[in-house]
Amino acid sequence: MLNLDPGMMIWAWITFLALLGLLYKFAWKPILSTIEKREQTIQDSLDKAAKANEEAQVLLGKHEEMIRSAESEAQRMIKENRELAEKSHQEIIEQARLAAQKLVDKAKQEIDKEKESALLALRGEIADLAIEATKKILHESLDENRQRALVNAFLDKMPKSTPN
Fold first, then answer.
1. pTM to 2 decimals?
2. Where are the alpha helices (DSSP H) in the chain?
């Protein structure tokens, strides 16, 4: 078994306490100081990381807002462009319709002019034919002025133009 010598125990305790005192005086403070410095460095790093995280969240929020703003602006521009395109489309259709109407009106006017011209030519031809027919029927010739007056009276009784 183990023999305990009280003198040896006292010296062991004295040595232990002396060593503990030396460690406390020379090693404990630097160890605690190093631990506190390390703890402070870690806390500073955590604080910086939290601050950086907050700043990143703020920037992320700003970027998301900018993206939403850009998207809404793009949607607004698309809508404006669609409206402008529709307006241009309607203007082009209206211009084409007006141009077509002008062409139709011009064609009608030309047709009316040609019709009037043809009617005048036809009246002249009818007058000449009537005079010739009258000459042949009567076997005599009326004077030219009298013949013209008769034909013009006949033609005045005719309608000026036919309805459309």
1. 0.42
2. 6-22, 29-138, 144-157
Amino acid (1-letter code) at residue 93: I
List all residues 6 or more positions away from 157 whose beta carbon is below 8 Å from its beta carbon. none
Q: How far is CA 81 from CA 28, 73, 85, 96, in A?
A: 77, 12, 6, 22
Distance of alpha carbon 142 from alpha carbon 150, whole angstroms: 10
Quote the distance between the C-alpha of residue 19 and its chain's center. Answer: 86
CB burial string 112-122: b at 16+ within 10 A, e below: eeeeeeeeeee
Question: Does residue 123 contact residue 151 with C-beta atoms inside 8 Å?
Answer: no
Q: Taking a C-beta distance cutoff of 8 angstroms, is the pair 116, 161 a contact?
A: yes
**How does DSSP classify residue 140?**
S
Per-residue tokens: 132: 């010739």
| Residue 127, pLDDT score | 78
**What angle in degrees, to the nearest 10, is found between the helix axes of 29-138 and 144-157?**
130
Domain boundaries, the chain: 41-157
Q: What distance in Å separates the CA atoms of residue 59 and residue 64, rounded to the nearest whole number?
A: 8
- Residue 132's CB is within 10 A of a number of other CB atoms, namely 11
Query: Where residue 1 falls among pLDDT bands split at 50, 70, 90?
Result: low
pLDDT tens-place string over residues 104-132: 999 999 999 998 888 888 888 887 777 77
